[in-house]
Amino acid sequence: MSAAPTVTVTDVTGGKKVTAVNNEQAIGATMRYTTTGTDPVSTDSEWPSAGVTLNTAGTTTFKVASFVGTSKGSVTTQEVTVAKLTAPTITPGENSFTIAGNDEGVNADLYYRFGSGGSWSKYTAAVAITETVTVQAYAKLKGYVDSDTAEQEVEFTEG
Q1: Where would a tag sit more exposed on the chain, N or C end, judged by fewer CB atoms within 10 A?
Q2: Domain 6-83, architecture per CATH
């Protein structure tokens, strides 16, 4: 046995998805993996057919190998880093507010809502208000963990 698995990393909503293809053609070949930095052995977890989704910020090192029984093929190592977006900034204006992302070089989508309930709206431009409100906002982008929620009271001034 010598065919190493092919590991692919894809950006998905909320993080990264890691998939692997078993290149070993022997009948009964299975893939086993670790995330501990050690090479897999025949008793380690079998690679899930749907892959593995990482939705927590941090770095994970996958080691994947094909097995026929206890006989192990070549090991593929893939390090995957998932970053968490920084909470956006809500800036009050004159009876309005704006929202700006805080991750340089990252064009995340920004979402907001009023109060702590209700549905989220995608932010595209300054938002006018007709009363004092509490605004919540967060940043979202494929391949990243969503930011924490920022909150800011925006005052309405009569006249």
Answers
A1: C
A2: Sandwich (2.60)
**HSE of 61 in the Cβ direction (CA atoms, 13 Å)?**
8
pTM of this structure: 0.85
For the domain made up of 89-154, give the CATH fold. Immunoglobulin-like (2.60.40)
Whether residue 107 is predicted with pLDDT greater than 80 in this model: the reply is yes
In the chain, list all ranges with CATH 2.60.40. Answer: 6-83, 89-154
Residues 138 and 125: their CA atoms lie apart, in Å, by 15
Alpha-carbon span 146 to 84, nearest angstrom: 6
Nearest to 111 by CA among 103, 102, 99, 95: 99
Report whether 82 contacts 57 (CB < 8 A).
yes
Query: Rounded mean pLDDT of 15-33?
Result: 94
Residue 53 pLDDT: 97
Amino acid making up residue 97: F
